Amino acid sequence: MRYLTDTNVAAMQAGAIWDGQSWIGYGQSLAEIGPGQSYTQSAPIWAGTQYYLFEGSGIGFGELVLRVQRGTNVLAETSAWLDLRDVRDLYERSYITNNTSGAKSNWTSAVAIVEFPAVSWEDESRDIIVYVHGFDNTHWSWINKSDTTFKRLYWAGYHGRFASIRWPCKRFGLDLMAYNDSEFNAYKAGSAMAVYLNQLRGRFPTHRLHILAHSQGAAITSEALSQGAPYDTCILSQGAMPASSYDIDAPLHSGLVNAEAIYGPTPEWRLMGYRGIYTNLTGRIVNFYNTNDSVLAIWINNQGGWKPNLPSTPYTYDGTNGWYDVIFGKYMVTDPQESRAYVSRSRTESVGRTGPESPHGVIKSAIDLKARFGFDDSFPDGHSAQWAWPIQRCRLYYLQVLDSIQP
Which of 4, 15, 184, 330 could bridge 341 with an S-S bond, Cβ 3.0-4.6 Å? Predict the structure, then answer.
């Protein structure tokens, strides 16, 4: 199992490496064995201790037999039954859609599809971890991260159930309003996420329910929890929401405070603003933060300069009310979710760049990803190192996830 923790061992299993004097490790493919086929390895390979890695190359099940013999005389025999599955047979996926017809304040959301696992674990623990993705995720990138998260949690020792939520985030591109549009979509999708979490609780009433929300996934998750969705633990990992949303005493960010003076004031306090909006959360909130996160540094620029100051944005604030103003219509913004996404400006850093590790606000505990696991300021990998890095480098992150959900 050392290939999961030691890159040198992993390299030796994958292929021979040069140690400066000679090639070491085997790593070459010996054979591909299909149904009813066998492979015979001659004696010289058995000089000393050898290790073999069996890799599934398809879907199916059967018995793998190892037989040691001299001539026709069988000296020893053992076997293992293998059941090879697509990884997506092993976990659940939920798809949330938004109804975007009519006024934004009337938008609704629904759980459109739930894809259930095809098999269950005989020895599964009574835990459910639900992964929630962030901004700028295609279907492929979401499913890839879901697969990876499930497998890495398993490699870290997790034997509970796993589910992943797909919500209608926006893609990063030339549209400068894409991030704010995505934040608004997240808020509107929160009610459907609350429905789904209630369904999970109803289906598994004796299981503990944990949420692992990444980046802008903190927006849909926090909105769902504030609407009464059940949970035991919520991990905000590199969360792209203001720290003041969870802790009204979070330190001010001088650049964002200056933006208020330069561009004009915006709503600060709940409900139309961010400060204190999620201080009603009563469960266990854990904050995984990286003070050097370069992607969340861009989040600061969005808060400071793009809400509602872009020439292309139809939103303004007159000191009392927010307004949506276009050629064919104007209305006062009365929807708090719309106000936070398009009008309000944070006065604090994101929760994903803010400590301390000690409890503060509704945050019961926090983990400094930079100090503990070396998450850095690289762009964009430092914001998603738990997937961008190989398992040997980030396995401690997943071990920490499992530690943080313990009762």
Answer: 184
